[in-house]
Amino acid sequence: MSTPKFTAEQRAAIEARKGSSLLAANAGSGKTAVMVERIAAAIREDDVPVNAILALTFTEKAAGELAERLRRRLTDLGEAEHARAVDGAWIGTIHGFCARLLRSQPLAAGLDPRFEVMEETAAERLANAAYDTALESWGRTHGAEAIDLAASYGPNLRDLIRGTYSTLRARGQARPRVQIPPQTAAPDASALAAAGEAATRDLAPAKDGVRIAAARTALEECARITAQDGVPWPGELNVAELKGGAKALQSDACEAYREVWAAYRSACAEYHSHTALTLIDALLHRYGRTFEQAKQERAAVDFEDLELRARDLLENAETRERWAERFSLIMIDEFQDTNAVQLEILEHLERDNLFAVGDEFQSIYRFRHADVGIFRRRAEGVVRRLNVNFRSREELLDVLNTTFRPEFGERFSPLRAGRQEPPADDGPTLRLFAVDPPSGDPPVELLITDTPGWDEHEAKLGLAGGGDQPWRRGEARAIAHRLRQETEAGRRAGDIVVLVRATSSLRLLEEALEEQGLPTYVVGGRGYWSQEQVRDGLAWLRVLANPHDEEALLTVLSSPFCGADTDELVALTEDGRRRGSLWAALRARGETRDGDRISALARLIVKERDHAERAPLEVLLERAIVATGYDLATLSRPGGDRRLANLRKLMRLAGEYERAEGRDLRGFLADAQARDLAEAREGEAALESEGLDAIRLMTIHRAKGLEFPVVCVADLGRQSGGRRAALLVGEDRTAGLRLAPLGGGDTIPTAAWERLAAEDANAEAEEERRLFYVAFTRARELLILSGGTDTSKWPAPRNGGPPIDWIVRALTPSLQLPAVLERTWDGRIARLKIQVNTPETLLDEALVSRPRTQHQEPTALPSVPAKVTPEFVRGRPAPQRLSYSQLSDYAKCGYRFYLKRVLNLPNIQPPPPVEGEPETVSGIDPLLRGSIVHEALEELDFDAPCAPADDAVRALTDAELTDEEVAEIQAFVEAFARSPLCGRLTRAARVTREAGFHFTLDQDGSGPLVRGFVDVYAEEPDGAHLVVDYKTDHVPEGTTPEAYVERNYETQRLVYALAALRAGAPRVEVAYCLLERPDEPLTVTYDAHDAPDIAARIRELAHGILTHAYPVTDTPHRELCGTCPGRTKLCSYTSEETLRLPPALWPGGPGRRTSPAGTSPVAAPPRR
């Protein structure tokens, strides 16, 4: 048994297992080894059971590695039993833990016990559909103002709403809303008018000229605008802006005008932002509700739901205590990348036993809502540090320390070398730190591409992927040549990685490396399943499966399968519009028997489709490759053998899939799509690339947690900042908006937006420095930094500017560029090699295609293809689902239920009124009124209840409401606000509105699944549970409220009671509040002993549904049967029977119109 050697600081972190603490672990400091040893020590020395340890990591791969290393360590220590127990340990991601928690108590969390966690792409599709639905409804509700706002922001409104929704959810808001500032007073234009007049007088003596004339026109526009009534839209003031460019325009009067103009425009923006923010908040709320409803219907949750629902579940004191007691030790890795909701979950579980591990300076996931402030606040407590880096050369670390210490400040703990280096004489002695001047080449190289002067050399630079900046192609050529030198000196290509900030930089660098004869492998954004040849092969199979898949068809046409150029594709597409589809046009082209490529391809597709379902997938691909010359076209390109090997590998994977799953073209395509999505979602280097002898190219984020002998960080001259969102929300929920003018033009920021944008830019700049710290610390032996800048100007660093501007100054503050720059750190020399790349210095050998180096393999692919592991998943029948509305509809008429609910037949036109039927009363439909009242009560603040304003009521529906109808709805809300039930909710320990529930009818988890919502679910201070349901029904004369509720809502009451009891409530009170009688709530209390009887009663009511028996009603009448799909031809009753007047109080009848709450009821006409 080998005993790991730990440093003193590592040993201290392992042995200090009492109390919560933070381990600040520098890059390469062996933190995973510390975590493994700490867990092993807790198991062996503290007698902590394996399943009493919760260890959370950032990715599934990291969790798997941690579990495997722990298993090996326990095995080495002779703890075989504990090693086997690791398989069931709580080691995983935060999302995995949340899912496991929710699956253990789905009903308490308001989830279907068989809920599914949606893939990101599935959630994306559902969210987009929900936005479209919400946008349409919002536009109808808010009318012209909403339509104008949507037109102003255009497609960006979708990103604005969805981005804000995601941000606020990550901050802990389950139902995100924006805090709207109060409406500001209309700004006074008199100061601007006076300043305009003063500037006009000041310019009167000035000679005419283009700029003076433009200034006078602007001042005339100022006079016109300030003379108008109302507050102008900020964009209207652009014509009154006073530009410079002439000496006369630099006077005090002109400068004063500019200041007043800017202040007035900002005030106008603030004034108009109130209306815009109100509309945006309404759309945000509607989108959130629609999205949640869509997920509820699918019994699905997304990753944000996992965290939010787990947090909410743990807010229950009993649940929190039970789960906290389960874990004796809690550890979380990458703590710097947590968000507010994840922190709440950890704090719910923490009992002074949380060991958080991370590095503030490696926090790079702000775009995923990670909050580095969480790490910084925790660092104010007990902190232990790991400063020794075992990864990199000491001199390389010294260069990094001199670079980042000034950038990060005092919080940064310098990296100390822990790697043992061979001495200069290559003798057998090992030493920890160098004492002599460094020998060999400098460990850090700076390649600066001077940006001017490349345009005239564009033709010889080549590289079609280079875009419109020739200097970037020059930089790519210089990098490729430098890395070629490394491989010629004996370095394995697999020891080298090229890192960039954005995936869009990868193609250019890949092409440059391939032209130097270097094998490459792009990881991440273009991993295996996104390689061009793999996409082509899959597109071919998709076309064979469905030739109307136009995306796949266009991919095939433009690929080497056909090689159609842009003009041919445009012409074919136009023909497709005339013929109805692109496939129709292509098929017609094939029928002409012409000899061109497109016609030949069309005939090949028609021929191959005849065999598509019977022939092996490998054969289908092989025949296409040979028939079209795809192989020859691909082999003629740089790196052609590797490219073709990608397609050959796809053929092997297809063959293995068929041997595991059977011949299934569409099944393989679905499997390929799932693999592609899984690879993209993982967010780390693909396992496929490990062990390859090829230069890997990836983003910096993908490289986190990895290390390489040689790291080249490229394209540092690329602008780093993107456009900031038009809506920014601060931590205090304060909203800042850029107003978009109708008809296009520049957006106008409010003062709040400018403040929040400045804060955001500063946070972005801080993270950029952390991002490149992560990139630089991936290197073990050699770090190459490359970027372009104008060395004659040396642009000053700025937020959003090219990183090279601050990186060069951090490396060489004097901006002097000697061949080798020597700096010192801790008394040691730290060398930096510098080379400036210009059109004149770029060598000719860097510009020509070169053969692959001798020792390289002919392809970058592994010799053994990845195996397709068949996963045989037995489909289980979906559980039969029941809801209160189903039971209610079935009770009215089983046959009508069958026609509408089972066969999904639409309603027919209602019959005309007959003599003796009361006249329809104009006004709001009672069902619609009930829905509006419920929505209003959903927003009611129980601590300070009051009715909503008129505008707020009208915003709840698409229907036009009269003032009387608005007042009626407000009266209902006010009635509940003063009811005793509202007072109980105010005093409740926990309140959930629109609480969803799911439970199985049988206690053992079998049987049908009952689901639904309750208006309010509360836990009272004494531990009792309360269900509240609002009703706007009118109780007819001659009937008591108790009898009315029992006749119409007894089934619902039973369902609500059993839902609460199955969720763990020892006792539940179900209360109905008839809002016309708010002071007389109708309540019934049930306890756990009643659950079996309630379940038996519900099963009895659902017996017909469960056994598929659909009897016709005993009491047909026009209100029940009028719109029934079977009334005219399918029903066994005659028209006279189905169209007779309803009985006075037929069971299950709908609620009638009623007078406003608290007033005398009027006669109740039937529902319209």
Automatic annotation (TrEMBL):
Keywords, A to Z, come to: ATP-binding, DNA damage, DNA repair, DNA-binding, Exonuclease, Helicase, Hydrolase, Isomerase, Nuclease, Nucleotide-binding
Domain UvrD-like helicase C-terminal per the UniProt entry, residue ranges: 412-705
Listed under GO biological process in this entry are: recombinational repair
InterPro entries hit by this protein? DNA_helicase_UvrD-like_C, DNA_helicase_UvrD/REP, P-loop_NTPase, PDDEXK-like_dom_sf, PDDEXK_AddAB-type, Restrct_endonuc-II-like, UvrD-like_ATP-bd
Q: Could you say which residues form the signal peptide?
A: none
GO CC aspect terms: cytosol; DNA helicase complex
Instruction: Identify the EC number(s).
Output: 5.6.2.4
Q: Tell me the residue numbers annotated for binding ATP.
A: A25, N26, A27, G28, S29, G30, K31, T32
Its recorded reaction(s) are: Couples ATP hydrolysis with the unwinding of duplex DNA by translocating in the 3'-5' direction; ATP + H2O = ADP + phosphate + H(+)
Entry-linked SUPFAM superfamilies: P-loop containing nucleoside triphosphate hydrolases (SSF52540), Restriction endonuclease-like (SSF52980)
Give me the ranges of the annotated region Disordered.
Answer: 1142-1168
What Gene Ontology molecular function terms does this protein carry? Answer: 3'-5' DNA helicase activity; ATP binding; DNA binding; exonuclease activity
Residue limits of the UvrD-like helicase ATP-binding domain? 4-393
Q: What is this protein called?
A: DNA 3'-5' helicase
Traced from the root, the source organism's taxonomic lineage reads: Bacteria, Bacillati, Actinomycetota, Thermoleophilia, Solirubrobacterales
